[in-house]
Amino acid sequence: MSKETNTYIKNQSLGAIPNSKGVTFRVWAPHAKKVFVIGTFNDWNKTSTPLFNAKNGYWSRDVPKAKAGDEYRFLIHTPIDWNIPPLSRIDPYARKVTNSKGNGVIYDTKAFNWDGGKFKMAPGNKLVIYEMHIGTFNVKINGQPGTFDSAIEKFSYLKELGINAVEVMPVAEFSGNFSWGYDPSHPFAVESLYGGPDAFKRFVKSAHEHGIAVVVDVVYNHFGPSDLDLWQFDGWSENGKGGIYFYNDRRSHSPWGETRPDYGRGEVRQYIHDNALMWLEEYHADGLRWDMIVFIKTIDGNIENPANDIPEGWSLMQWINVEIQQQYPGKIIIAEGMHKNPWVTKDVGAGGAGFNAQWDADFVHHIRQSVIACDDRSRDLGEVSKAIEHRYDQDAFKRIIYTESHDAIANGRARLPEDIWPGNADSWFSKKRSTLAGALVLTSPGIPMIFEGQELLEDRWFQDKVPIDWSRVEKEHGILEMYQDMITLRRNLSSVTRGLSGQNIHLYHFDDGGKIIAFHRWDKQGPTDSVVIVVNMMNQNLDDYAIGFPRFGLWKTRFNSDSNKYDINFGNHPAPDVEAHEEKYDGLSYTGKISIGPYTVVIFSQDK
Question: What is the CATH number of domain 498-605?
Fold first, then answer.
């Protein structure tokens, strides 16, 4: 096995590369004795087009007759004494395949027309992310998954909602017709049923035209395990394991099978590096979200057990993240860590992994628990307060906060309205408390994320064969409007709530008996900047309730989640503007009296 390295092993690209003289084929197969390329350009002749040994395990050849659109495979001959028939393999670097069990397709990565102005993603403090699964987001044909083109049809809807970033669940080619995407068979190929590489480029281009960034979910903690031509790619393996692309000892084991890549082998490090940068370079994606990096850092997911640590996994992430930051400044790199590890988002120079942000497991857990509880008295405002205030490295925007995600609402876990009252997701209680949680996502410091259909009160747990019910746009138009209003405030689109994109928070009012909290968000403070959020987590109306305010004068009500414009069954309890006068309260210099409805969030700010 070669020594861990971050240097380029070969200064030339691997795969099938069209050029003015035909196509150059290059592949890494260090244990092969002979390698042939077969395809439509040579009538699949098994011996007519041998590749030449380029040393160090690489094989290469220029083929004048080959062209973009031709199908192809590599035919790998192993040593005679291995007694293995020639191995027909899809190119590991294939950008396009006919399907997960089919053939590679020669693809010209430079042919797509990206004309138009250059898109610039909003900075992290102004992002609102929408997690999307292409296969279920906008299904047009019953029994078939959605496609990139069908998803494009909903970009105007997302723009009106206020979303300015989508995180697409993995779109690399997977086995079968339906999948979450976390089982990549061909990591460089874009899922054929979704439309393939050109369709994904149309998706990104259209997103940018609508002012929406695209973050791609990538899976490097394992590959496959199904339809995986990388497995024993050139015939070699040890201990019956995966061969050159994988660990062949106990480090191979992951929750998804024995297919953890060998992060210590230079060629495999290069493979993952090239894949990560491909999404940014060739597809103009605006960032990456790495799936479950704890299984890149460790064998068993236990970061407290040094015996199972994989140090080369950590260094791989560092290398790639530094490369992205240097070559593509302004892109966002997100980790799913889920272990509250602050080193994930520390700078590489300090020993961290170098991610810009990580999913905050504590937020989703504590906020969901707080609104699911049936008994108001059992709501733990201490945990809610910690969830609101938490941050990594003193930076509020190094965390992604949410109450619904593909993991949080699947595999037996329900959508939040259904969790609140099973079988009665359309109930007053489910609507009130789930939208209260949504308001906390969009007012707490962090990068907020909602999952597809959350804004429609979608009640079915996530499955890859169950599409979003778009009839709910009409049925739950009020809830949709509520999310639009909250996102408008979160992004300061009305220029009166700048503080919601600021670093600063002071949770100053805490009434555990009455289940009331209030917190102040600000960037630089002052009119149209300072924002006060009041949260009532109890089934009670409150009138003339005193809380502190950070400034003197009139505080205008910008949002009242109890408004019956959001649902005819909401109480529409008044939440009038508040005149704060000089009287110390809650440790602040000014006091005002508010009114608020049950399970309600009210947002205040000042004009002057």
Answer: 2.60.40.1180
